[in-house]
Fold this protein.
Amino acid sequence: MKYYISNKAVVQRICKSFHLLPRALELSTCLPTSSFRGRSRTQRKVVVLRDPDMRMWPVLYHERSGFKVLTSGWEAFSKANNIQPGDGCIFGVESYSESIYGVSIVRK
């Protein structure tokens, strides 16, 4: 699901799978990035999430066909921001070149 806010592409994922993957967040769609295009094997990349308090969190992003997930670093980010099952996370691209994504949290 893609939205366009302030001319920045964003993706939204409601954290329904939070109980199933407490240390990771499976995304319903890919984070907008150009670094994986044209590659078919599994890709991993450190991305930076900026929370509503403007803190920066390095998180490992995995992408392959049919599988997109935030792993290492996600647990600390979600605990610090009190993200609960059913809350929504909106990821907005702040910098493609530095892989920085602003995260807005919509409480259930």
User: Anything to note?
Assistant: Residues 16 and 85 are 5 Å apart (CA to CA).
